[in-house]
Amino acid sequence: MKSYKTKRTISNALGYIVLIIISIIWLFPFVGLVLQSFRSYATEYGGMVDYLVPKHFSLDNYKFLFDAGQTNYILWYKNTITIAFFVTLLQTIVILCVSYALSRMRFTGRTFLMRFWLILGMFPGFLTMICLYFLLKQFGLTQAGAIPGLILVSVASSGMGYYVCKGYFDTIPKALDEAARIDGATRARIFFTMIIPMSKPIIIYTALVAFMAPWCDYVFASYVAFGHDSSYNVAVGMTRWVWTNDYQGYFTRFCAGGVLVAIPVTLLFMFLQKYYVEGVTGGAVKG
What is the CA angle 181-183-187, rounded to 5? Predict the structure, then answer.
């Protein structure tokens, strides 16, 4: 008995040591990013330790970000929030409606449609970038009109993300729908008054996934808003900083901007992590 307890204690201790080491390795870049954001723009590096930890902490980089006379960071941040908000709202609504229809309704071509969307979603989005750019350009939704263009592209294909949400709806007994239908409730009323209140985890999961895509988007955003500074999102705008000749100085400003970008995402996952996990596990039960 003592031997078993000893082995269990040793294995637990080794497990904790491994997890601590992995956590340190995983957190090291983030800690470095935060420390560098407090380094003065004009600081000279005096060795490895000084490179990692500033000798004198300064808020110069954050002051630079909020100085509209020197940078458009505040405008880029507003653009990112605008895109992420509307994409999250509209994409969540579309996915919920499509998922409910595929889960509860039976119609000709339903199975083929689901399989077709599933296969189509396996192709990388990069294949359509040139086509989408010229299509958006015809409607004036590039460069100066890049923000509504990015929202449109993200929302237009959102119905194909039905899979996890449909799996969650499949776990809700259909007997509830049938009982409500007998009492004269329409499908719309069943959806909004019965299904939605019971689907909080999957709604939050869907919203978080929808939020993350435009919030972190760089490739397509830079492609659509190319050359128009006022239409950049944060990722595109800050990337232009590290492309300047003054890389050493703008790197610390880049770190400060990255910290501010990470704050909303971190807070969302901290407060909604429980529902996020429930949404993933609930939607994975059935397909």
Answer: 30
- Output the tens digit of pLDDT for each of the chain's 287 residues: 567 778 888 888 898 999 999 998 988 888 888 888 888 765 555 544 456 777 778 888 899 899 888 889 999 999 999 999 999 999 999 999 999 988 888 888 888 888 888 888 787 777 788 888 888 888 888 888 889 999 999 898 888 888 888 888 888 888 888 888 888 888 888 888 888 888 888 888 889 889 988 898 888 888 888 888 888 999 998 888 877 666 666 888 888 999 999 998 888 888 877 766 665 555 445 44
Same domain, 47 and 184: no
Of 30, 22, 26, the residue nearest 265 (C-alpha): 30
84 and 42 within one domain: no
Are 98 and 199 in the same domain?
A: yes
Residue 120, C-beta contacts closer than 8 angstroms, at least 6 positions apart = 160
| Domain shared by 73 and 54, yes or no | no
Which residues, including other chains, have CB under 8 Å from residue 287's CB and lie 6 or more apart? 163, 166, 167, 170
CATH number at residue 75: 1.10.3720.10
